[in-house]
Amino acid sequence: xxxxLRYFRIAIATALMAxxxxxxxxxxVESQRPAVVAAAVSQPVPELPxxxxxxxxxxxxxxxxxxxxxxxxxxxxxxxYQRRAYDGAPPPVPHKLLDPGSFGGGGCLSCHAEGxxxxxxxxxxxxxxxxxxxxxxxxxxxxQSQGEFRGNVFQTVRPPETRQxxxxxxPPPVPHxxxxxxxxxxxxxxxxxxGEIRSTHPQRVNCRQCHxxxxxxxxxGGEFTRPVPGGQP
Amino acid sequence: xxxxxxxxxxxxxxxxxAASQLAPGVAFAAGTPKTLSAEGLTxxxxxxxxxxxxxxxxxxxxxxxxxxxxxxxxxxxxxGLCCVKGYHSVIALxxxxxxxxxxxxxxxQLIPVPIGEALDLVASKLKETIDKHGKNAAGIYGSGQxxxxxxxxxxxxxKGAIGTNNVEANARLCMAxxxxxxxxxxxxxxxxxxxxxxxxxxxxVLWGNNMAEMHPVLFSRMLDRRLxxxxxxxxxxxxxxxxxxxxxxxxxxxxxxxxxxxANAIAYEMIxxxxxxxxxxxxxxxxxxxxxxxxxxxQDKFQFTDENRNITFNEYVKRxxxxxxDKVEKxxxxxxxxxxxxxxxxxxxxxxxxxxxxxxxxxxxRGTWIQNLVYNLHLLTGKISQPGNGPFSLTGQPSAxxxxxxxxxxxxxxxxxxxxxxxxxxxxxxxxxVPVENIQPKPGLxxxxxxxxxDRGDLRFLWIxxxxxxxxxxxxxxxxxxxxxxxxxxxxxxxxxTPTTDIADVILPSAMWIEREGMFGxxxxxxxxxxxxxxxxxxxMSDTWQLIEVARRMGLGKHFNWTYExxxxxIWKEYTSFHHDPKHEMATYQALxxxxxxxxxxxxxxxxxxxxxxRYDPAAKSVNxxxxxxxxxxxxxxxxxxxxxxxAAEEPDAxxxxxxxxxxxxxxxxxxxxxxxxxxxxxxxxxxxxELHPMDxxxxxxxxxxxxxxxxxxxxxxxxxxIDGRGRPxxxxxxVPFFDExxxxxxxxxxxxxxxxxxxxxxxCAVQVERA
Lengths: 233, 772
Hints:
The structure holds two protein chains of two kinds.
Chain A: H1 2-31, H2 61-66, H3 77-82, H4 106-112, E1 117-118, E2 123-124, H5 185-188
Antiparallel strand pairs in A: 1-2
Chain B: H1 3-22, E1 42-47, E2 56-62, E3 65-71, H2 84-87, E4 102-106, E5 109-113, H3 115-133, E6 138-142, H4 148-162, E7 167-169, H5 176-186, E8 203-207, H6 211-214, H7 216-228, E9 233-238, E10 240-241, H8 243-247, E11 250-253, H9 259-272, H10 278-284, E12 285-289, E13 309-311, H11 313-320, H12 325-332, H13 336-347, E14 353-357, H14 359-362, H15 367-381, E15 390-393, H16 400-406, H17 422-432, H18 447-456, E16 461-465, H19 469-472, H20 476-483, E17 489-494, H21 499-502, E18 506-509, E19 518-521, E20 526-530, H22 543-553, H23 567-576, H24 589-594, E21 598-599, E22 638-642, E23 658-663, H25 679-684, E24 690-692, H26 694-700, E25 707-711, E26 716-723, E27 728-729, E28 733-737, E29 765-771
Parallel strand pairs in B: 6-7, 6-16, 8-9, 8-14, 9-11, 12-22, 14-15, 16-17, 17-18, 23-28, 24-26
Antiparallel strand pairs in B: 1-2, 2-3, 4-5, 4-18, 10-27, 12-13, 19-20, 20-21, 23-29, 24-28, 25-26, 25-29
């Protein structure tokens, strides 16, 4: 009788301990769950020929030099577009809101203004291209569930293609609109950048000196023509 | 597809295949189909489908599909920024359960029928009802989501051609108090100022208005103003801590209904300190009082008419003595020093002040009074009708102003003026080409009374367009059961199935937003036009055209003698002929097509940004260099009303010890019938919940996510708890958003309303809270 009780007690204690370890483990796992959507392997970024000595780096280039090599970025172009309803749509917040009572502002910008590595999420923080807009949660909403209410058949168009350089080796034009994203370095520079579109030379601050913004799709474009004098074609 | 496009799509498909092989298990841009190239994408302007802010959007259209949205940088409203609803608005067109066919109820079942057959039935039932029970047994109930042509045609058909004033709109539940507030103080509806005030003001006082979530684009504009001007202050006055409180420089919480006392105490304190503008008061203001103890309208057929008594400034001051900061501290829970601080902001002649409000002051059993009292603060200090100075009533629906207030789709209104006014009736009869006797001189049923009449059987035929009253009516059970009674015929025009289509005898599928041409009018008197960009799905038809089709079937076609191609410009021409005077002049059709929006009055094509000020408003007359002219009232003065504090219709007691407040979240708009079908928004807030103060939760043993049972005298509901989420009610209060048709909080709310505006109070009733 006494033995039985003892075994019973030991069994209970073991079960309790096991469940405690399980719960603790789950909590740790949960807290370390990465904040980002599964990354695709980004394609290797072809390097331009070494530029050192061609230009003197601006003073803030130091920041880039000190950054660890983050070539294996956790953001790929595919995941970038997957997180957006269409090219240009605001993506939702992929992590738990640190303070759901907040409207955004400093709480969001403490990471998303400058970027950097966040150990909790094992990720390089994406940088916002529009840090002046402070009511962040007006556009970037959290995710509480994964289901849909009734299903939806919305379709969008393909996002613009990259590497549309008109000549081999010439600087490619900007293939997307610049509204709300006229700070190029947010997506194209630094370790939080999207892999395929990371600039090899983010310190060359004056991006649009070389990368012209092409007209947005739908703008009347076409080739430049003008009537020939004398009316001859 | 051109050869180049074909090659590109082949290349893209190959790339996706290759990439999928490189990284198995990763979905490559699942939302982006392989076939739609961006080539040939065109962008067209429209106001946003959702709230009353009226953001300008550019919609990307490709192959008869809306594929993308940009904020319109040319719009003076939002200057290129949207909120999450606006950016994803086009996705609401593509819900899988979109209504594309008409349905008719047969033996309790809704059976799909060709739309012509359904329209035949609607016309014959409407005729039959009028023959059997009289004109006033029929009615139409729309909303501020009606386009201006929808509302105008509904009003012309029912008030003019048929001859009943039973024309109402969801706007009664939304901004009727704003209308009566404007009418009683200024004699003319709609704000004197505009959104540009944000760019000039030094202080923003938000009265019961969670702008960070409900008018986020304007809130962002305000934050931007503060970011660039360190002296700018935002003060949040509310009954619940919200994201707005968090963003504000100062958050002041008060007890429900005590805003009446608070506004009076600010006035008292300003007068005591001589922080008022005496010359302005002498020249432009007169003093008045009305009835007190005016009731709550909870009984059927409740009637109320206010009386005006002129009083002197000294009598007004005498009445304010009941409202010293110390006395009001006891009523409102706001420390006297905070009241003095508010008075110092309103009263500082060096500070430009804008007051904003929306549902907190509108959905209020003394809604008209609180509007009067906030106007008083601006009138006492002369801070009105100038850039950066003024009270501003925000709206919740995209065309609450344009369709309901300007085109006149409330029971007592006409496109110009009131049914009770003979000259206004004559004008309407002339323009509509109907005998003047057709237009009844007595208002019909206001919204709450309309649904009560349906329950009683006084109303037999109700056509509901573009709104969802079986989610939004307070004390919902009575009105749902009433609508379902034998001998009632309910027609519902909508784009998705809702709890309201559940009670319908006929469902008509509507063309939504950019699937038809239309106009909306926003909060700042701005009219905005959009063209038809898409073909409506299936049999779907615009609400305007449904009304015209029914009118034709009733033999009333001669009043609607337009073609599909020209009906919108023709309606606009006819409608604006009501407004050919400098106080109301509307933009021409051509101007609307060419601009992202035009503010009225715009005599000679010139917009008026600040009314009642001769520097900006051609209708105002300057006297001896003083440009202010409140021309809306016969005495050409704005009226300061003394209004007392009175308690809410129902207050917490031992049995029902909590205040229940209801409202919205940024992700969902109105009843969520559109926004819940947008995946990103549904994922963000998939269901309703009840917010509790953490201390109350602890006392009741409720933790985050626990099921909680709320009970009021009207009904009970079980829903999950949210503690320290995005909002925090005060102790003894709970808050529930109303968008969720599976968690209908309006089963619990009370149908008490402001006796002057007849707008129900959704912000105050008493409930019991327990762990389920």
